[in-house]
């Protein structure tokens, strides 16, 4: 439940931030993720950090603060939404790492109930299953009818340009596919690294986006 909720909050907050601030500034603010990941890793995983790491995180925070003060199109709503997205993603990553390290009962059929680690595929499936469970009622209530009307038209107003509807479906499929691959690759990397290093790698991704 926590993983699914954190993923939804992160995704929605990111899209809200893009309504108020530029893409580059949104990703600059989200580069605070290593800072949040360090604090949560300390609380939930008991991980300790050297003064060198803490100094590097302080530089990141200072850089984001400087960017906020000099941003021409600054918006407090967009800034807070981007921060919320970074914090929620940090919660998700640290919790995923905790689950990847967690022992579960392998069942009586496997070594008489021996313990094993949760596989990244299992964590991936459970996270997205709960996300779908939470979001599906919202989609059906708010967007399904509008999407069908846009793609196929209605009895009173048939679709004038079917190609627009097809284009929308193709874009949705591309968005879904790329986000799925990105999430699974991210989880694969997280299985090999600690959450702070994973967040730093995400910062490299943000440099490319900017």
What's the short version?
This protein is mainly alpha-helical and 210 residues long.
What does this 3D model show about the protein?
The protein has eight helices and two strands; from the N terminus they run H-H-H-H-H-E-E-H-H-H. With 210 residues, the chain is mainly alpha-helical. The two termini are 32 Å apart.
Describe the SSE topology.
Elements: H1 2-20, H2 23-30, H3 33-45, H4 51-70, H5 76-100, E1 103-105, E2 115-117, H6 120-152, H7 162-192, H8 195-209
Antiparallel strand pairs: 1-2
Helix pairs in contact: 1-5, 1-6, 2-5, 2-8, 3-5, 3-8, 6-7
Q: Mean pLDDT score, rounded?
A: 80
- What string, H for helix and E for strand, traces the elements in order? HHHHHEEHHH
**Major sheet: arrangement of strands:** 1-2
Secondary structure class reads mainly alpha
Number of helices: 8
- The gross shape turns out to be globular
- Gap between N and C termini, in Å? 32 Å
Unreliable stretches: none
* Strand fraction: under 5%
Largest sheet, if any? 2 strands, antiparallel
Total strand segments: 2
Q: Approximately how much helix is present in the residues?
A: over 70%
List the main descriptive attributes of the protein structure presented here.
mainly alpha, 2 strands, 210 residues, two-stranded antiparallel sheet
């Amino acid at each position: 439940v926590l993983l699914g909720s954190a993923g939804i909050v992160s995704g929605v907050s990111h899209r809200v931030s893009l309504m108020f601030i530029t893409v580059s500034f949104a990703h600059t603010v989200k580069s605070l993720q290593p800072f949040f990941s360090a604090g949560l890793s300390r609380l939930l995983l008991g991980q300790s950090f050297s003064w060198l790491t803490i100094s590097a995180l302080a530089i990141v925070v200072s850089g984001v603060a400087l960017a906020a003060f000099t941003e021409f199109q600054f918006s407090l709503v967009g800034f807070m939404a981007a921060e919320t997205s970074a914090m929620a993603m940090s919660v998700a990553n640290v919790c995923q790492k905790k689950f990847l390290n967690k022992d579960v009962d392998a069942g009586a059929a496997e070594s008489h109930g021996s313990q094993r680690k949760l596989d990244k595929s299992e964590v991936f499936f459970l996270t997205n299953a709960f996300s779908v469970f939470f979001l599906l009622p919202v989609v059906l209530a708010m967007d399904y009818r509008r999407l069908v009307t846009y793609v196929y038209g209605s009895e009173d107003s048939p679709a004038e340009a079917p190609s627009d509807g097809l284009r929308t479906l193709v874009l949705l499929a591309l968005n879904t596919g790329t986000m799925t691959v990105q999430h699974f690759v991210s989880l694969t990397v997280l299985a090999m690294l600690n959450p702070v290093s994973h967040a730093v790698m995400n910062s490299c991704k943000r440099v490319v986006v900017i």
